[in-house]
Structures are given as structure tokens and as C-alpha cells.
Design a protein that fits this description.
Blueprint (H helix, E strand, L loop, with lengths): L18 H7 L1 H4 L4 H13 L5 H28 L5 H9 L1 H7 L5 H4 L26 H24 L4 H31 L20 E3 L25 E3 L42
Parallel strand pairs: 1-2
Helix pairs in contact: 1-4, 3-4, 3-8, 4-9, 5-6, 8-9
Length: 289
């Protein structure tokens, strides 16, 4: 059960309207790594969780918090649009430079949402549920969550740097701090899971069934050998089950593909090594020949 209270988790009030910045802020609302994505990702991971209840509870804690973040950003976008477009249009009529800047405003903020936020990114692309990851494997999911929080925090920091509005910066500083916690949270959960299972996902698949000759080989498939200097090219593997091997000149290990000619009714290009079929009229046409 979810219950809404009127107070926001944290303040979301700009110092002044800025419809152009409202368009930018849409990215961390409805973009690939925006708050709608992590909200839906965590909630579905939690609802589908079949593991230890402490993980289910933790995932739903953060998933529910992300609902609050969606509300904060949507509220901030709406307030950045206060007075637009009438007041800004009046100002633009006095100053051509202002008019040029306002060309960057999202017209859908006026036409579609009536000066409100939309579930889209900064260029108007609709939010997509394919952005989310909820596989049922907690280690795989938590690593995806860490990536989502890393990308999300990066974008919020970039938005922080692109405004001087103290009210906007205040809200973003709160979101940045929560993303710091959430990255730490997922790293802690990943470390805990790795102590009870193998680091490679899925840990339940017998490794003897994979082609173990290449399980720990780093293959140099680009010009230069600078990659040989990395931690991934020598020493103990991260799962501590083997050692990395650097392969400077990997060779092809497969066959040369030879595909059979498609049946005539598929109408692919004819086999150039065979004589062309005779012309047929409709009465004598047989697609199996």
C-alpha cells in the first residue's frame, strides 16, 4: 500500500522561472537514467523478489523513495514554467536576444502539459519501460542499479553545473547526496552477495559446461597492446578461480560459414553456379522447383 502526504521529501522551489532549464531538467525525470526509470526498476525488483526478505524490504525502501524524487522534479519543472509563456513572450518582444534564448523552450510544456512536467526526456522522447532491469537475479540487478545510480548522479551533477539558481541547486544537491548513498548501498549489497556466492552471474551455472580454455583470456582485438597493462590482463581473476591471460594475437577458432541455398519460394538471389531456371508462365509456375 502506498500513501501520499502533501509535504515533499525535500524542497523543490526555484528562485525564478526558467522554461529553458525546465526542458533540461526533463532528462533526470524521464530519461534513460532518470528518476522514473529507477523508481520503476526498483519497485518491480522488489515486488518480484523471491530471496531473503531483507533484500525485498531494502529494494522497496529505495523504490518508494524514488517516487518522492519523481514528485520533487516534476514540481520543480512546473514551477520553472510559472508565468510561461506569457511573461517571457512580453520580455522577448522587448529584447530579441531573449527571444532567441526562449527558442530552446520545450513547446510541449505549453501545448501538451499546460505548463507541467511530462514523462519524457529533455528532447521529448517518451519514457520507455525497456530502460528498466528486473531479472530476478539480485546480483545482476544490483549491478544494474549501481550503474543506473552512477549515470544518474553524473547527469544531476552536470545539471547542477549548468544553473546558478540557488533554489534549483539546493534541490539538486539533495538528489546528488541521495545518489551518493544509493551508490554506496548497492555496492554494499553487491559485496554481501559476492561473499555468499560466486562473483560471476549466474553463480548457479556449472563452470565446467563453459569453454574454460577462454574463460580468463583477455584477447587483443584492436591495434596496439596498451590494454596488456590493465588489471584485467594478468594476475588472479576477480572471482579468484583462475589467472588472467593476455592473448596478443588471437586466432579465429570457428569455421568458414557455408549457408545452404534457400528454397525457390523464398526468392533469394539465385545460385550463380547453377543454370538459370527457365521462364515460366503462371500456369506452369511451381514454387517448390
Amino acid at each position: 500500500m502506498f500513501k501520499h502526504i502533501k509535504e515533499l521529501q525535500y524542497n523543490a522551489k526555484p528562485s525564478q522561472p526558467d522554461p529553458v532549464y525546465a526542458k533540461k531538467l526533463q532528462e533526470i525525470l524521464g530519461g534513460q537514467f532518470g528518476e522514473i526509470t529507477v523508481m520503476m526498476q526498483y519497485l518491480f525488483q522488489g515486488w518480484n523478489c523471491r530471496a531473503d526478505q531483507k533484500y525485498k524490504d531494502m529494494i522497496l525502501d529505495i523504490g518508494t523513495e524514488e517516487i518522492a524524487h519523481v514528485e520533487m522534479i516534476a514540481t520543480m519543472i512546473a514551477q520553472l514554467l510559472d508565468g510561461a509563456p506569457a511573461r517571457e513572450q512580453e520580455e522577448a518582444a522587448k529584447n530579441p536576444a531573449v527571444e532567441a534564448v526562449l527558442g530552446g523552450m520545450n513547446p510541449q510544456h505549453v501545448i501538451v502539459s499546460g505548463l507541467g512536467a511530462t514523462p519524457t526526456d529533455s528532447v521529448g522522447y517518451p519514457w520507455n519501460s525497456r530502460y528498466t532491469v528486473a531479472s530476478g537475479n539480485l546480483l545482476a540487478d544490483f549491478r544494474a542499479n549501481l550503474n543506473a545510480e552512477s549515470q544518474g548522479r553524473l547527469q544531476v551533477v552536470r545539471l547542477y553545473e549548468s544553473t546558478t539558481d540557488p533554489g534549483v541547486r539546493d534541490m539538486l544537491s539533495f538528489l546528488i547526496a541521495r545518489d551518493t548513498m544509493h551508490q554506496n548501498q548497492w555496492m554494499a549489497a553487491i559485496e554481501e552477495l559476492e561473499q555468499t556466492q560466486k562473483a560471476i552471474v549466474p553463480s548457479t551455472f556449472p563452470q565446467k559446461l563453459e569453454k574454460q580454455e577462454v574463460s580468463y583470456s583477455f584477447m587483443n582485438f584492436s591495434q596496439g597492446e596498451e590494454s596488456a597493462q590493465g588489471r584485467w590482463a594478468s594476475g588472479q581473476s576477480m572471482d579468484k578461480l583462475s589467472n588472467f591471460e593476455y592473448v596478443a594475437n588471437p586466432e579465429a577458432m570457428g569455421q568458414i560459414p557455408q549457408l545452404q541455398q534457400a528454397p525457390a519460394y523464398i526468392h533469394n538471389s539465385p545460385d550463380p553456379t547453377k543454370p538459370a531456371p527457365p521462364n515460366m508462365d503462371a500456369a506452369n509456375y511451381d514454387p517448390q522447383k
